[in-house]
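Usage example:
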Amino acid sequence: MTTDMLGQRVKRVEDQRLISGRGRYVDDIKLQSMAHCAILRSPYAHALIRGIDTSRAKAMPGVLDVMVGADIPYNPLPMAWPAGGSAGLQNNVNTPRALATDSVKWTGEGVAAVVAETPEQALDALEAIVVDWEPQPAVVDAEKATQPGAPQLHENAPNNIVFEWSVGDKAGTAAAVDNAEVVVRQRIVNQRLIPNPMETRGDIGLYNPGTDEYTIWMSSQTPHIQRLLLAAFVMGVPEHKIRCISPDVGGAFGSKIFTYADYPIVLLASKRIGGRPVKWIEGRRENYQSTIHGRDHITYLEIAGKRDGEVTAIRVKTFANLGGRLSTIGPGIPTTLYARVLAGCYKIPNVYAEVVGVYTNTVFVDAYRGAGRPEATYVVERAMDLFANEIGMDRAELRRRNFIAPDAFPYENPSGLGTASGGAKIYIDSGNYEPALDKALEMAGYAGIEQAKTAARARGKYLGIGLSSYIEVCGVAPSKWIGAVGEGWGAAMWESANIKVHLTGKVVVTVGTQPQGQGHETTYAQIIGHELGIPMEDIVIQHSDTQGTPFGYGSYGSRTSSVGSTAAIKAADKIREKARRYAAHMLEASVEDIEVEGAEYRVKGSPDKKKTFQEIAFALDLAFDAPEGMEPYLDETAYYDTPNCTWPFGTHVAIVEVDEATGQVELVRYVAVDDVGNKINPMIVDGQLHGGIVQGVGQALWEGAVYSDDGQLLSGSMLDYAIPRASWLPNLELDETVTPSPVNPLGVKGVGEAGAIASTAAVANAVNDALKPFGIRHLDMPLTPQTVWKAMQTTKGAQE
Amino acid sequence: MIDAFPSPELEVPTVVAHVSLTVNGKQREVDVEPRRLLVQLLREDLDLTGTHIGCDTSQCGACTVHVDGMAVKSCTMLALQAEGSTVVTIEGLAPVEGLHPLQAAFWEHHGLQCGFCTPGMIMAAADLLARTTEPTDDEIRHAIEGNFCRCTGYQNIVTAIRAAAAAMRPGATAASAG
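Running the assembly step on the lines above writes:
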């Protein structure tokens, strides 16, 4: 009998090629007669383009072609989530063109592209292009950009406002705030981040003049969506004439979901030079200036409640910086994915959020790991600490007091997730928050923290502890709900899988999802092996090529394990059912009498009368003896549209020490208790949590994309942008509670983003706690030594 | 507003220089432009694409290889500076059919996710283990602080390097690499 690997810590199928240097990322692909592309980017944050002289560049050695904006016959890039556009809200959409024509809106926007025999020749030729710029005043701060007199980016967007959107009960929340015993107010900045996958983006475009077909290799999370968007919205080419392939993808974290200008550029370039393939590989500095950034909110927060610890209202006004033009789903992040989950895991009866989306002279902002939910968690978890401190209640106790009760599920969230018209609701499927909190506090030694603080003081350190209790929305999403209240999201959200069983019993599974390091080739094989009772070694998982895989919406929003896996299980159900029917035929029994255990199909009551999966596959492939009406071969496809999202939760606890003399913050311990439901592969789940937690810690302590007032990206390279390093981190201490999701057959929830959603608030709360003796109430991130030291000096030392 | 920038003289000299070096045990003779970096020579001229490029400021370490026994970021060296050197890349760390204990330990302990930083990370770790047989976690973390990983939070990388060190110590059995 085959060992069932579902739920086991199985070593990954992907790793053999990756540890031996035999992975295949876009830049590793060399095609015959391949040419190379480089893109000239604006040195100004805001400027008019008076003219571009490419004549000298065209004469440079090896140069095959030079394109400017006027040479691009395509539409601007699409924007697929207008955030309330369908509800008639103000919504001023401006998206990038493949190359800018009249003006540039951020430092790094592309204005010309060179195609040459070698990458070096292409870069050399960029230097010979002369652009006649007319610089304009710039604005980089979202709040300032909305004020009178601010530089204006787009004629159709007065005061640089993309949209003004709100959710929740405005009057009811106002009344709750006005009548509350206690109201705490705080301005909170969630700073701009750069996603930093270790592989930058890159593409190879190939036009075949013989068939009029386009192929693009792209480091993307969404090859199927990119084919659709490029065909129908950008290039006007029939969808079946474009093929998108994502080979090994070297990390993404959301930044590779979107439609980027270089996709149409390399495809058009290949066509213009007669069908030679054209490669473009993004440099790191280029990545910082032309691939999306994340977060960048300024929030005015009010939290209200009673002195006994009952929180009655939360109200925010958030300015969301969306950059110089809109990325593919930029407006959806600070609206649907942020404000609708603002109350987190708490039963807060009055919630009102007002969000202003703003254009500034910065790189466009879109989904970065967690996408909206880390921003929401940061707001509500800082709010809980501020409120607890205000009323003098223990911070853990305040959280416990306000948790949604375990018997309240399914729970309708007051900030709007359940307020759909047409009955298409989503609701928080399940939860049991207190055990996770208790376990985390126990592990962290919360009860003895005052002694630890005293002991640290003797060493010249200020110790702080921070909590973050979070929920996440995973497994996006029911298409019906998206259609009804998705704030204008322009797509469905189902997933797909096809299973083919070869004559030898070996199985090929093709899926519509697309991994970027999550180990899908392993986890899908664990699931299919479990479903069909066959060894993982007999299964191969194929993905990421629009030719040969069923359409899928791709991998982001922690949706593959819940939505994609369920599609695969449904396909396996169909395979098993057909095999069962054929087994009945082979064994001369009725279908109802065939019972299946693992790979064995046998007649009830006659255990000797049986066929194996492999025997059935063999016979059904040859079809010498197939019954009337039964098609040969085992080949089934399934599509799955989830009835609800899934809702992981947990509590993270950070302990930090702040150095009295330098303001240096050391993360001393980090405890995470997460409930992600059942696990397909606990080893991979741990790895996702580790990585997510460290990205969130990075935001709290070190990371930040910084612009000068005139729009130059000062943190413009890895020299200046502080990516977490191994030596800055402790070993993370993980544990779990397990509340299976009722939404899908595996009871899984998703884990790709949970770490990043929880950890930023935990660490920031810990640092603010450490600084309480200085009378410091709130410091904005990143909590660098400079920020912390300056704050300590301003308050003239500890007040106790 | 601006009529034109002064026209720079941008004619690139087509000088070609010659490099002789040993890569993964084989003598290689390569003609390069003088500005070619070692990492480009490895990837473009020798098709050794396991060595990756993750930044352009020598921060990330994805391009780490061994030059004359030392871990080097191959984007910081001109190809010409490797004249006469012995270079080992991830492809040459173990025989084609086998795995170095570090590779086995990264696999066993889930020390990689997207895999992009992995070759450089393993080469940096191999350099550490050539100098130290019993590194502490602290020493491991410092040894790889010039190598960025954005997926793993480093935790399982540290575990893997610790396990590989144990497996490589004299007297350890091959099986303990896991």
